[in-house]
Amino acid sequence: MILGRVCGTVVSTVQHPFYAGKKQLMVRYCTPDGAFDGEKYVVAVDLVGAGVGETVIVEDEGNSARQLMGATNAPIRSVIVGIVDQVTDTSESP
Amino acid sequence: MKLGRVIGTLVASVKPEAMRGLKFLIVRPLTAELADDGEPFVATDASAQATSGDLVTYEASREAALCHDPWFVPVDHAVVGIVDQHAYSDEGGPSKAADQGSAS
Question: What value of ipTM does the predicted structure carry?
Fold first, then answer.
């Protein structure tokens, strides 16, 4: 899973039928301190009701995503699976 | 999925039998702010209606192979949808949640 922040929305009408009715959000990768991790981003399907500005965890692996969506042949790889309340990074503690 | 810009189309008469009938597009990958992000690649069109100039979403690797009917064709990139609306908010700096984390 990756830590990211929701930066925007993506709306399509002409798309693969699997994606019909599924909210797609743009998530930029984040480091544990909340900064953007370079230019890396992903467009992910939202399972948890996340909104712009929220820190989220994204499952970015196809088989896990298909298991989460309950669809064995779905062309999906990235799914927002959680909204992060708090990140504690102990690596910088004295 | 990632964002890309269709910059051209491609026709190949000689190709694997499993790819018969598929439409090919040349897609340039984009960053979240829609700036160019690397070299263009050839993708099949699972949305069936994308054309030059369209902002699209695409899948790569195994997910691309699952986009088509019949599924599991030998492709490595596929256009999934045409983007109608794209909102981007560059809320830089640590978020509220991350702030709480670093303070604890």
Answer: 0.82
